[in-house]
Amino acid sequence: MRTPSSARRALPLSAVLLVSTMALASCGNAGQGAETPGGLIPLKVSVAGIQFEPAYLAESQGFFEDHGLDVEIINGADPAAQIASAISGEVDIATGSWDNVATSVSKGLPIEALASNGVVDPNVDNSGVLVAKDSGIARLADLKGKTIGVIGVKTGSDLPVFQALGDAGVGAEEFSEVGMPYAGMQAAVETGTVDAVVPSDVFYHQMIAAGFPSLGNPVREYQGNQPGTLWLSTSQWAGANPDTAKAFVSAMKEAVEFYSDAANLEEVQKIHAEVNQIPVEKAPTRFALAGTAFDAEASQSGLDAMARFELIDKPVTVDEVLWEHASRK
């Protein structure tokens, strides 16, 4: 199994928009070209720092190869940088978040969501607003005038924070946000760089286990059944390579089924530990919900909320965000 390369520096979405037209006009396909000697189609796929396990399982269990693909998995950074890597042609398929892809589409970027990946479980906390143990902050309303560390500032990924604080009586202009990677959130709140953070997935569970108080779980409360992470490509690539895209989605569907089977937990833990370079005994015993089909109703609800909080330039629909062959439920 390949080990991801080091993460790239995050690229602001505005910068992505600035270079997109030129990049799309000049770049070729990252992994596409002549078939390998074994008759497989080469493909470059970028994963995120969370919910990456299904992709590596598709590689290790042979699902990519079964569907005629020779996939090179690359370690990506934040959602905006992932989109930049697809637009630049560095990768063919990248990982994104529903909100960030919607933001990109509203700005006119030719991005399409091919398939869902991680899904927000409406019954399980996998993210939350956490504070330092001695902060004196006891509820969301106490964050008025405070600074919150998020994965992306006003990219849509912070939408649940706006929703939760709004319902707690804290307006959008009454708190500040600082963008930072999940891996740096615990240190940021420990040192007082920020007053609260919103980690996700394993980073959330690590902080909970370490005793950091939670003020609430906005992602679960406001985004249940929405895609947490998804697979994206440029419209240009998807239009030129529909069969390859379908093969990738089919392989990922098999990988998600394997990942979701409790009988395979040890294999999932091994993948998680190897990628993160940690002892397998430190791997989680529970992983995020996953699925390749989009819940259209829940996804549209998220888009409507983004428009309401003016996190997108104009309202967008599920049809505008999804690839024409994307599965829905």
Structure explained in plain terms:
The chain has 2 domains: 205 residues, 3-Layer(aba) Sandwich (D-Maltodextrin-Binding Protein, domain 2), CATH 3.40.190; 95 residues, D-Maltodextrin-Binding Protein, domain 2, CATH 3.40.190. It has 329 residues and is an alpha/beta fold. The protein has a 5-stranded mixed sheet with strand order 7-6-8-5-9. It has a 3-stranded antiparallel sheet with strand order 3-10-4. A two-stranded parallel ribbon has the order 1-2. α1 packs parallel to α4, α2 crosses α11 and α2 crosses α12. The N terminus is likely disordered. The radius of gyration is 19 Å and the shape is globular. It is built from 14 helices and 10 strands.
Offer a few descriptive terms:
alpha/beta; five-stranded mixed beta sheet; D-Maltodextrin-Binding Protein, domain 2; three-stranded antiparallel beta sheet; 14 helices
In short:
This protein is of the alpha/beta class and 329 residues long. Helices cover 39% and strands 13% of the residues. The strands form three sheets. It has a five-stranded mixed sheet with strand order 7-6-8-5-9. Strands 3-10-4 form a three-stranded antiparallel sheet. The chain has a two-stranded parallel sheet with strand order 1-2.
Find the CATH topology of the largest domain: D-Maltodextrin-Binding Protein, domain 2
Element string (H = helix, E = strand): HEHHEHEHEEEHEHEHEHEHHHHH
- Could you tell me the radius of gyration in angstroms? 19 Å
Number of helices: 14
Can you tell me the residue ranges where pLDDT is under 50 for at least 5 consecutive residues?
1-28
Number of separate structural domains = 2
Q: How many individual β-strands?
A: 10
Kindly report the average pLDDT value. 90
Helix content: 25-40%
Q: Could you describe the largest sheet, including whether it forms a barrel?
A: 5 strands, mixed
User: What proportion of the residues form beta strands (DSSP E)?
Assistant: 5-15%
Strand-pairing-aware structural class: alpha/beta
Q: What CATH architecture label of the largest domain applies?
A: 3-Layer(aba) Sandwich
